[in-house]
Amino acid sequence: MNTFIDLSLDIYEGAPTFANDPECHVEAYHTIDSLGYNMTRLSLSTHQGTHLDAPFHFVRGGKTVEQLDLHKCIGEALLIDLSHKQPKEALRVEDFLPFEAGIVKGARVIYQTDWDRQFPNPHYFSDFPYMTLELAQWLASREIGMIGMDVPTPNPVDFDPVHQALLGAEMVIVEGLANLRHIPHNRFFFMAAPLKIKGRDGSPVRALAMVEEGER
To answer: What is the pTM of this model?
Structure first.
């Protein structure tokens, strides 16, 4: 029998995000007392919390969220444990070479740094282990379908060239994952479907790992 591990950060009123992004608001719009039912108004970025980047996020004319091949973000994934990496330490090609056999065309690859433990502290958005441009280019050359991570973005400084390399290869990026340390094996079934937001650049996701019950 299968069980699920929630890999998502919470969305709540005032949840932190990058300085240039819209603020996150989760507000009661109707209540049972006022109108007979509860309803909530959401105001948030398409890149709030655990979310998905479509190529259009950085690539002019790139695929938008509703155009994505959902096979890229649903299916078997390879988990790479890089939890030994320190704050602000570079993630390099050599860190991924031991797993090279699984980093192939169409693969879903996720790396674990355990940086989600730092959420919601301000340094969560600045001090995480970061992907080098060389690594981004190497992953793009492998033609993988998805790269996932438990940090808020691949690189906080060279964000433009790194995103260009990944999204330019029509890769899906899933950012802000959580609880990867609870996954018992480095191969697992992963799900992170976006909202069907027409013509836009990204979407919050409810990311899940499906594992055999008792393996956690």
So the answer is: 0.96
